[in-house]
Amino acid sequence: MKTLSDFSFRNKTVLLRADLNSDVHKDRVLLSERIKESAKTINELRRKKAKIVVLAHQGRPGKSDFLSLRQHAKLLNRFTKIKFVNDVVGDKANKAIKNLKQGQAILLDNVRGIKDEFHPEKARKNKLVKALVPLINIYVNDAFSVCHRKQTSIVLFPRYLKSCAGRLLEKEVNALKKIKLKDCLYILGGAKPEDNIKLLKGNKVLACGLFGQLCLIARGKNLGEQNKYLKKTIKNYNSVIKKLRKRLRNVEMPVDFAVKQRGGRKELKVEEFPSNYEIFDIGEETQERYVEEIRKAKIIFMKGPAGYCADRKFCKGTFVILRAVADNKGFSLIGGGHLSDAIEISGVSRGKFGHVSLSGGALLRFVAGEKLVGLEVLKDLRGELGGEKI
Hints:
Radius of gyration: 21 Å
Number of domains: 2
CATH class of the largest domain: Alpha Beta
Number of strands: 17
Structural class: alpha/beta
Shape: globular
CATH architecture of the largest domain: 3-Layer(aba) Sandwich
CATH topology of the largest domain: Rossmann fold
Distance between the termini: 23 Å
Largest sheet: 6 strands, parallel
Helix content: 25-40%
CATH superfamily of the largest domain: Phosphoglycerate kinase, N-terminal domain
Strand content: 15-25%
Number of helices: 17
Strand order of the largest sheet: 5-6-4-1-7-8
């Protein structure tokens, strides 16, 4: 797989697929490690005198965090110089790309606002390909966290352009190649619980986040209002519950939760559910039990936060677990962009962990032994030679 070290970028127009996807609180995008790390790759390309076109996403269509990237551009400008273009495949984007000078960078708007992002099978008829490929010399994928997704900005551009990995993607892959997660303690949380099922293969699991709630439901517990929320939020909810029922061996589940009551934090035992309140964090007794398990572990893989960390009142469970993992003398792998952001505000030094990944689903699939489509296309010789013609 080629990297930034393998090409000359001087006066070349580069399409950089970055991952800027960040937590959102009350329609405000929060500064994330993904944004900071992406700025490093942009700055390297600027030093190499490239003309940089950044393509990225925020959220998913139909979700509350599906926003324009205008705020991301402002955050990026704290670490690099970049101009936001309120367009992706139209005349504004075309003109902005053509007017780029060496060392300049632009950020196009949310690529997931273009329906063809989700239809790479269209290939030559794809709007993203037709609009961008004729204007670009080199494609750089720096978005490891979406390399498991078969989407246009990940899998199609390497078919038509010289391609390589950005520094963040390169760093992630090199670190993960060294990791063996057999005989490992899994701490599984985050907002995409269906992904965690891939790792339920007999290892000890501490379940938290939405995943811990789903495990309890799969075991027959009615959580009340939270059941309704999960049914609306979790894709293929019934299928996920059905799969979980068969794979709960060695999974330790929460015994209490923190709910939001009158804007504050209130803790309830699992026995006190069903409840009219939605769940936002694990409770103190669960935290104590999990810390005891963490102290005994030799290798730890933690994916996703234990609660809703966009609200500091519900960061407690995540912070307690992170501190316990940091104090553990064994090897630890921390995964998930939201969890990486939580480390930033927890006060725990990133150097206390073996490796901190900014990815979630892609990381999980990689350590579960699956091939990632975004990495496979970068290994394809066509990308190194310049690819197909449109």
